[in-house]
UniProtKB/TrEMBL annotation:
The active site is at 67 (proton acceptor), 136 (for ring-opening step), 138 (proton acceptor), 143 (for ring-opening step). Keywords: Carbohydrate metabolism, Hydrolase. It is an enzyme of class 3 (hydrolase). It comes from Tissierella simiarum. The gene is nagB. This is Glucosamine-6-phosphate deaminase. It catalyses: alpha-D-glucosamine 6-phosphate + H2O = beta-D-fructose 6-phosphate + NH4(+).
Length: 241
């Protein structure tokens, strides 16, 4: 596990953008695993800037997002599909057909989860997976629990995540209680993983992760310790607390 400590959020976002740019230069049809949440927003801004000012080309890039709320369709302003279109895809030259966000309105959700993992593998698997981390150590919507799903599955959100994400909704009652998420096993299949964290509220989770001695389902991010190519990019606040 490699750690890069950047001065602030801006530098963290630029460092992540730079890595992705270099990887797209090596492989224009790269498969990117993408995350939502406020953490990667700066990285998306940086990639948009690189597209506009440095001709970074997304025309062959394929993307898979980690998660989506159950019950929200892609037109809903709080859905992750809407978020991704709004803050990233609509501003670059990506073919929208090459972007995948789990369908929170799929009729048969169980079957849909299996299919999602299959289409990722059919596309060649994720080359670089971008991750954020929850204050409680969750990755995507894999919440601390007695057991964690290996593949994409439907999960119940914890009170702390519902609380944290209610800032995006009109009221806490509007936050969906379940979500589709790629599983820990799906995430660990990526060839390379970049985890981003900023702000003092992430320091406890980052400290726990950097101890590096144990994996625990109570700390879903700890499973990243089993992966051979993980880079954690943090700002000083997330590093020092
Ligand atoms: O980046 P944020 O907004 O702090 O969220 C952290 C994590 O929580 C989630 O948004 C899920 O609640 C993840 O997708 C994200 O990685």
């Amino acid at each position: 596990m490699k750690i890069l400590v950047e001065k602030d959020y801006d530098m963290m976002s630029k460092a992540a953008g730079q890595i992705i740019k270099e990887e797209i230069a090596k492989k224009p049809n790269i498969v990117l695993g993408l995350a939502t949440g406020s953490t990667p927003e700066g990285m998306y801004k940086e990639l948009i800037r690189m597209h506009k000012e440095e001709e970074l080309d997304f025309s062959k890039v394929v993307t898979f997002n980690l998660d989506e709320y159950v019950g929200l369709d892609g037109d809903h302003p709080n859905s992750y599909r809407y978020f991704m279109n709004d803050i990233f895809f609509n501003h670059i030259n990506i073919n929208i057909k090459n972007t995948h966000v789990p369908n929170g309105k799929a009729e048969d959700l169980g079957q849909y989860c299996k299919t999602y993992d299959e289409i990722i593998q059919e596309a060649g698997g994720v080359d670089i997976q971008i991750l954020g981390i929850g204050e409680n150590g969750h990755v995507a919507f894999n919440e601390p629990d007695e057991a964690l799903s290996v593949g994409t599955s439907i999960v119940k959100l914890t009170e702390s995540t519902i609380q944290a994400n209610s800032r995006f909704f009109d009221s806490i009652e509007d936050v969906p209680k379940t979500a589709i998420t790629m599983g820990i096993g799906s995430i660990l299949k990526a060839k390379k993983i970049i985890l981003l964290a900023n702000g003092k509220n992430k320091a406890k989770a980052i400290k726990e992760l950097l101890k590096g001695d144990k994996v625990s389902t109570q700390m879903p991010a700890s499973f990243l310790l089993l992966h051979p190519d993980v880079t954690i990019i943090v700002d000083e606040d997330a590093y020092k607390g």
